Each structure stands twice: as C-alpha cells, then as structure tokens.
C-alpha cells in the first residue's frame, strides 16, 4: 500500500524558513519522481517543485517560477523521504502543501502524472 505522509508545516513570519518532509512507503522510491503541490483557499492546486527518480533518472528538480531560487527540493533514498527547503517565505506561499508520487521517473508539474497523494500540511506565512 502506497503511503505519503507530510510533516513540518506551521506558522512562520515573512522572510522565514521551513523544511517540509514527505515520508513515503509502499513503492520502490528511487524509481519514481515525487512532487510538491500547494493549494491556497479558493485556488487550484498548483505544482511547486518536483524531483526526478535516481534509478533511470538523474534526480534533477523542477521548480515553479514563483519559488525558484527560494525553494530547494532534495531526496534521501535511504529514508524514502523527500524534502523541500523553503526560504524567504512570503505571505503568498500560504497554502496546504501536498506531496505526491508520480507514475514515472521524470519530474513533471502535471498533476495527472501523480497517482498517489498525501493528506497535506498547512503552511502559514504571517506576521
């Protein structure tokens, strides 16, 4: 059974940092891309960052324009866990953040490519 569990969300001031975690189980982790998406109230779920698998892939990451240079995705294959390090947070980063496992090795921001989703973790950026 595939499971993804996010953690690390919370309240942070503008300009602050958070490191989310996505612990996975139930699939061969290094074969698949894992993505991070977010959904703010009244808005569609959007891709934030995703990282390719390392078996058959190069482990490269893709970032959405608004977070490029501020967010860094990484993966620990020994722990089956993916991390986005989020720096210089802004109020517009406030959302529920979800991780998802893709059906392929290449990182992609396309939601339909992701078959399994976590429950999400709230990130609130506010003073």
The gist of it:
The chain has 127 residues and is mainly beta. It has strands spanning 3-7, 10-12, 18-19, 21-25, 34-39, 46-51, 61-63, 71-76, 81-86, 95-102, 114-117, 121-125.
- Please indicate the percent range of residues in DSSP E strands (runs of 2 or more): over 45%
Low-confidence residue ranges: none
Q: Roughly how many Å is the radius of gyration?
A: 13 Å
The SS-based structural class is mainly beta
Secondary-structure element series: EEEEEEEEEEEE
Question: Cα distance, first to last residue?
Answer: 40 Å
Overall residue-averaged pLDDT value: 94
Secondary structure tally: strands: 12
Shape verdict: globular
Largest sheet data: 7 strands, mixed
Q: Counting H and I runs of at least 4 residues, what is the number of helices?
A: 0
Helix content: under 10%
